[in-house]
Design goal:
The chain is mainly α. It has one domain. It is built from eight helices and no strands. α2 packs antiparallel against α6, α2 packs parallel to α8 and α3 packs antiparallel against α8. The longest helix has 48 residues. The radius of gyration is 27 Å and the shape is rod-shaped.
Length: 257
């Protein structure tokens, strides 16, 4: 699992790489200036195409990251609704079987609300998921046993689907948390950013039309966007958080008390 320092380190590494690429391109441009009669139409077209590809890759990567963040928010709310529905349907069970099941549900809601806080530590996350799985089995067997009576057929028809949805959403939410773009996409983004910086430096060395300020601004913008993309991909760290959505589970737990 990534950390805040990992995200900052990757972004800083890209920034420094782009600055160095600009300096290298500028050095090469000064050593091999354009001839007086040389045309710049083809090189400019190629440069424009490469910069356009970088812009598209940044845009699509950002859009996909934000889409996954929105899905994770929606799943938290959806899971809270599923737990609430199953919890309310415990009223359909025989009265003497309800107290232990309600206690299990409170422990289950506590575990699910705590999952987001444990994402920074992969070991704690795995422990919490194991606890969730254990509580799922206890809730399932206790609920099905309580509903296994002659007069509980309608109860089973309402309670069992609610429990199924509640359990299935754990797998869906876990998969969403671990869903990230393939590493080659970020490698391509890094490579394109370095190439674009090198091309800027090459043009500067040959024409002296751009200065170091332009290269620094370009590096800051691209590396800053990369940090934001990574921050959205790993919303437990940095500026982008999921506390507001996770508060839905915390509020549900308070209602269960």
């Amino acid at each position: 699992m990534a950390s805040t320092y990992d995200l900052l380190f990757v972004s800083l590494l890209l920034f420094l790489g782009m600055v160095l690429a600009f300096g290298l391109g500028q050095w090469l441009g000064r050593r091999r200036p354009l001839a007086q009669d040389a045309t710049t139409e083809v090189p400019n077209a190629v440069n424009g195409a490469i910069f356009a590809v970088l812009g598209l890759l940044l845009a699509f990567t950002f859009s996909a990251a934000y889409g996954r963040l929105d899905v994770r928010r929606h799943l938290i709310v959806q899971e809270a609704n599923a737990i609430s529905t199953a919890y309310l349907r415990l009223d359909l069970l025989p009265i003497d079987t309800q107290p232990p099941l309600r206690e299990l549900f409170r422990s289950y809601a506590t575990s699910r609300a705590a999952l987001y806080g444990d994402l920074a530590d992969s070991g704690l996350t795995e422990t919490e998921l194991a606890r969730t799985a254990s509580l799922q089995m206890e809730i399932w067997y206790s609920a099905t046993s309580a509903a296994n009576c002659a007069d509980c057929e309608s109860t089973r028809l309402l309670l069992i689907p609610a429990l199924n949805e509640m359990i299935d959403l754990v797998t869906t939410r876990t998969a969403a948390i671990n869903s990230h773009p393939p590493t080659p996409i970020f490698i391509a983004l890094f490579a394109l950013a370095l190439i674009c910086s090198g091309l800027m430096g090459l043009r500067t060395g040959r024409t002296e039309q751009l200065g170091r300020l332009h290269s620094l601004l370009f590096a800051v913008v691209v590396s800053g966007l990369l940090y934001l993309i990574l921050d959205i991909e790993y919303p437990r760290f940095g500026l982008v958080r999921l506390e507001h959505s996770n508060q839905t589970l915390v509020n549900l737990l308070q209602l269960m008390q």
